[in-house]
Structures are given as C-alpha cells and as structure tokens.
Amino acid sequence: MTGRVLGVDVGTVRVGLAVSDPLGATAQPLDVLPADDALDAIVERARDLDASEIVVGLPLRTSGEHGPEAEAARQFARDIEEASGIPVHLWDERLSTVQAERVMREQGHDARRQRGSIDKVAAAVVLQSFLDARRPR
Question: Interior CA angle at 39 toward 34 and 40, to 5°?
Fold first, then answer.
C-alpha cells in the first residue's frame, strides 16, 4: 500500500505523532498532543495528511508479555480505526523511547529538557521500524 502512514506513540500524558513520506519509506517526527483529547486530533491529522494507514505503538513488556498499557493501546487503536475509518496496525514499541533519547542526544538535544519532543521522536522510531519491516528485501 502506498501513501502516508501516521505513527502514534501513546502515553498517559502525551501522544507523539510521526508521519511517513508519501512513498511510505521514511518517518519524520510530527507533533505532540495532550493525551486527554488526542483521539479527535489524531483523526483530524490523519485526514489532513491523507494517511492511508495508521501505526500505533504497542507497549509490550521486555519479556514480550502484554500488560495493562498494551491493552490500553489496543483499545485506543480500535477507537482510532472506528473514528477514522483508516486501517490501524499495532507495532511493538519496546525500547522506542530509549532509541528516541539516543537520537536526540546524538543531535545535541537534552532529552530531559525536551520531554515532549521525545514522544514524537519515539513515534518516528516506531513508524520507521514498521516501514522497514515491510520494505521488500
């Protein structure tokens, strides 16, 4: 499938967004939303971007088990799909925040001072992983 893909990193305080290029090859950090009213904003952003798919990070435990956070992400993904009519995929997001912090440090940013930015960078890490996994080898 071609077209932009919207990446979503769900948190209890903030939700990070990332978007792919139109060919679905690369992910870029996009925005950070307050978690309490993110659903409508995500649906609106997906429509504005003409996203053909949405990827929601699935916060599995390091053991791979599902906890309450994973179930909350699953429900949020169902809510997004129902509200938007756009196919939603869940994607393992283990260690995405650690990778996002590393990327920010490498770019000379203090991740602790820019806490909100980590969420959109983490969304880009998750989205890029999804895009890379489905790229033909």
Answer: 100
Residue-range domain boundaries for the chain: 5-134
pLDDT at 99: 59
**Could you give the strand order of the β-sheet that contains 27-34, starting from the edge strand earlier in sequence?**
27-34, 14-20, 5-10, 53-58, 88-92
Query: How do residues 4-36 score in pLDDT, each as one tens digit?
Result: 999 999 988 999 999 999 999 999 999 999 999
Would you say how long the chain is, in residues? Answer: 137
Structure tokens belonging to residue 40? 């409508």
Class of domain 5-134: alpha beta
Round to whole Å and give the CA distance between 84 and 88.
9
CB distance 93 to 61 below 8 Å: no
